[in-house]
Amino acid sequence: xxxxxxxxxxxxxxxxxxxxxxxxxxxxxxxxxxxxxxxxxxxxxxxxxxxxxxxxxxxxxxxxxxxxxxxxxxxxxxxxxxxxxxxxxxxxxxxxxxxxxxxxxxxxxxxxxxxxxxxxxxxxxxxxxxxxxxxxxxxxxxxxxxxxxxxxxxxxxxxxxxxxxxxxxxxxxxxxxxxxxxxxxxxxxxxxxxxxxxxxxxxxxxxxxxxxxxxxxxxxxxxxxxxxxxxxxxxxxxxxxxxxxxxxxxxxxxxxxxxxxxxxxxxxxxxxxxxxxxxxxxxxxxxxxxxxxxxxxxxxxxxxxxxxxxxxxxxxxxxxxxxxxxxxxxxxxxxxxxxxxxxxxxxxxxxxxxxxxxxxxxxxxxxxxxxxxxxxxxxxxxxxxxxxxxxxxxxxxxxxxxxxxxxxxxxxxxxxxxxxxxxxxxxxxxxxxxxxxxxxxxxxxxxxxxx
Length: 451
What we know:
Layout: E1 2-3, E2 15-21, H1 24-34, H2 48-63, E3 71-79, E4 88-99, E5 104-112, E6 118-127, E7 134-135, H3 143-149, E8 155-160, H4 165-176, E9 180-186, H5 188-198, E10 206-209, H6 213-225, E11 231-234, H7 239-246, E12 260-266, E13 274-277, H8 287-303, E14 310-314, H9 325-338, E15 346-351, H10 353-357, H11 359-364, E16 377-379, H12 383-396, E17 400-406, E18 412-413, H13 421-440, H14 442-445
Parallel strand pairs: 8-9, 8-11, 9-10, 11-18, 13-16, 14-15, 14-16
Antiparallel strand pairs: 1-7, 2-4, 3-6, 4-5, 5-6, 12-13, 12-17
Helix pairs in contact: 3-13, 4-13, 6-7, 8-13
């Protein structure tokens, strides 16, 4: 929820600020839109840097000071140093002058890097609103997950066989970010040698010595089942080895439902974040398995801040055709939700992708649905469709992602060698929020399976 300040309420000296991690993908998007092919060479020297700074400060004006209803009359920006990429950029505006005859507010703006050094300054003339306005805005960027975790204690996390530089570094980065307290399951001598080579400190990390991949997975799963750790993180072992251990009866992690993968995604060109499932585990789920995938995704979305998730069951068309199984699944799952065989969200299907995410497309197709055009969760027909959508968004649209395996009694973080540092942090943050929500209100995150 964002709320404005009217001209009469604004005082000289009032300030507003925001933080944004400028990623290479943001810069590429700017380049694609405005044709500045040299943008990635040196962010501070390019002509597009002034435009990026203007956009960030304009967003701050439109969302905070004065907020909704503002009209920017003019801006003047001076870039003083290279914009930081993959680091926190802090934007701030300060009220310097008010002109009552035009309801004009003069703002001084600046952007600073993580060290507090000014990288850009600006002057903005803004016509302030005279009436109070409030807007409810869907959350978009995944940095909000990290912000929410600052109110929570770091989570004891079993890191399973992190016997590669990438997996061990990922765990340590999550620890440095204050998200987890790692408990390392693996061969102790190998872990210490790897840490020494990678110049990583294992001080403060408990190590549970194991003899093999399978031993690491089983001991970690048993620890999770006993409540010794609140989450599991995949290291340098195959996913099926880890999940086989999770599903062992003696681990006490099974809930009676299918486990599935959920990913929260934020795309620069789409103004709301959403969940997609299942893109990594279940190959060709049948209708009953898709029911569990829906329920798991609803719990995941609720844990990450979507109070009443709208679930679109995807197919190639938005009407039911008996020769298209995905369309039948959509219709059946929607009726299951009506009969409370799926709870906690609104489910509709079949919906094709454009109708699920674009309100104009839904109107053009005359689709009347509480989900169409506003889907929070996309349930894909099979792993091929889901994996292609997911990887297209990650590698061609610079999407932010946070992924977990859910449906067991603890979340499982699946890290990948191809994951960025940001993706690993977001996934760890998602696990912290999921585990916290599961501990506080298990019935809303993992309701008992419906027979």
